[in-house]
Amino acid sequence: MSLTDxxxxxxxxxxxxxxxxxxxxxxxxxxxxxxNPFCGDELELTVELEGELIRKIRVQPKGCSxxxxxxxxxxxAIQGKTVPQAEEMARRFKAAMLEGASLENTPEMEDxxxxxxxxxYPVRIKCAILGxxxxxxxxxxxxxxxxxxxxxxxxxxxxxxxxxxxxxPAAAQAAVSTDSPEEQVRGALRTVIDPELNLNILxxxxxxxxxxxxGNVKVTYTLTSPGCPLGPVIKGQMQSALLRLSWVKEIQTxxxxxxPWDPKTMASEDIKTELGIx
Length: 278
Ligand code: ZN
What we know:
The chain is of the alpha/beta class. Helices cover about 40% and strands about 20% of the residues.
């Protein structure tokens, strides 16, 4: 993992733990509700304008760490700016997420650059842009004289292949290995990275069990949260990692929610230190 990835994850987790401008304004100029059905994220923005100035913005987010952190960063970036400035920032942020543009040279969007890493995980892009799209929807309703708006995440990012996988770290041991099959399977699973936390699923404690019978491998695993649609991504990565072991012929995966994942008891010591939040 590169230093940059670490740094970016820290910024995202910091916003997730200490969200800025949370809550609801009593007398907003407009309210905008946003939902991202792909992940179960929801948020409500209340915004107070003074002419073209965004005097106050509050957010009530519910959802994954990416959507909550992104909304927190957005409120911090646009509060005190004008409506056209905020619209321009939304345009830039979406261009960065959806078209690969860079947010460098935009100091007022410094923290938001941390989300550029999300681009690698198409399923999470909707989480990152939900707040901005909800804001744009609210502003557009306001321009039409309305006080309330609703945004449902839909088209954006649709053109990106959903099965695009992040680059795999070093491939699992190939052909000849003196490790036991169990160790080889663990080694392979250690190369699978949870996109949300950017840490490997084995040390996170997401693997509940492995059974090996000849060339058949059965993996029982869980996910960090039932909300986000990471299942298919992680499952796909597990399968390709295990298939790199020459003796593996068949793979069965089983997603388990019981017991619920608890990093306090399940993650490795290194990972707990790394997460710092548990
Ligand atoms: Zn999400």
